[in-house]
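> example.struct
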């Protein structure tokens, strides 16, 4: 039997944001591999082998998945959100790149998912309607000075900025350093949103301004959205404002 490897994204939370392609891949898998809390979101059937692991062993997990695929298993590697955004698809391809040349001939497919920034944007309105970028604030895989440089460059380019991995117990202070950079370079009235646990029962959204934002509210389940100079609010009676970035710059249509 020839093996298959499907690297799938489970979306940010609810089942309704999981694609039919991903549901089918999970249903037919012999082996499910991933960070244990993501695997816990799956309904598995008798006979499927679930290989849960810690979040810090991405490359080991990737190599394990490739070895099982080479043995003829139907393997699914799961990520939260989209598997290509700060997630397992790149780790698997790194392992292919550096590993057994025979792995290059394996049947490997990346199955997309809804990323946290898309889900947060949908809840907020349309903040990603014009040019934007995504930056992970984690310095686990790159040095902090590079994070700070990219943040300054994103502000310089006037992008809407989606900040992933804004804080964790081990990294509580970087979000404050990030906001110091943002406040030194951008208008205080810039819209800012803290979108926490989007699509989950404990979802919480704060819409504020750069001047008034309290970065202490963020945790590892939060996506931070920083507006560009064009991002605006539409105030609504009895409902949260819409946050949106017009399609054209300076009113161009
Ligand atoms: C390692 S990254 C994985 C990103 C994922 N692959 C994606 O496409 O959304 C984890 C970060 O994604 C963001 N995130 C994931 N799920 C989220 C959710 N439901 N609500 C808000 N942010 C979320 C947080 O910034 C979190 O620290």
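> example.seq
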């Amino acid at each position: 039997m020839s093996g298959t490897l499907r690297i799938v994204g489970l979306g940010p939370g609810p089942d309704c944001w999981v694609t039919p392609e991903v549901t089918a891949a999970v249903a037919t898998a012999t082996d499910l591999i991933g960070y244990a809390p993501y695997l816990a979101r799956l309904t598995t059937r008798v006979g499927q082998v679930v290989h849960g692991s810690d979040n810090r062993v991405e490359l080991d997990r990737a190599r394990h998945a490739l070895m099982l695929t080479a043995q003829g298993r139907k393997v699914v590697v799961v990520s939260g959100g989209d598997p290509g955004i700060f997630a397992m698809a790149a780790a698997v391809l790194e392992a292919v790149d550096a590993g057994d040349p025979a792995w290059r001939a394996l049947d490997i497919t990346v199955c997309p998912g809804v990323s946290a920034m898309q889900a947060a944007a949908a809840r907020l309105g349309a903040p990603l309607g014009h040019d934007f970028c995504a930056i992970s604030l984690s310095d686990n895989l790159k040095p902090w000075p590079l994070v700070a440089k990219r943040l300054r460059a994103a502000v310089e380019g006037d992008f809407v900025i989606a900040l992933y991995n804004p804080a964790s117990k081990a990294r509580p202070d970087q979000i404050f350093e990030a906001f110091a950079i943002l406040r030194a370079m951008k208008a205080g009235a810039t819209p800012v949103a803290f979108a926490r646990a989007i699509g989950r029962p404990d979802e919480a959204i704060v819409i504020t301004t750069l001047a008034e934002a309290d970065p202490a509210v963020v945790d590892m389940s939060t996506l931070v959205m920083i507006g560009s100079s064009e991002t605006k609010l539409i105030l609504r009676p009895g409902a949260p404002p819409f946050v949106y970035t017009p399609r054209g710059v300076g009113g161009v249509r």
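> remarks
The chain has a mean pLDDT of 96.
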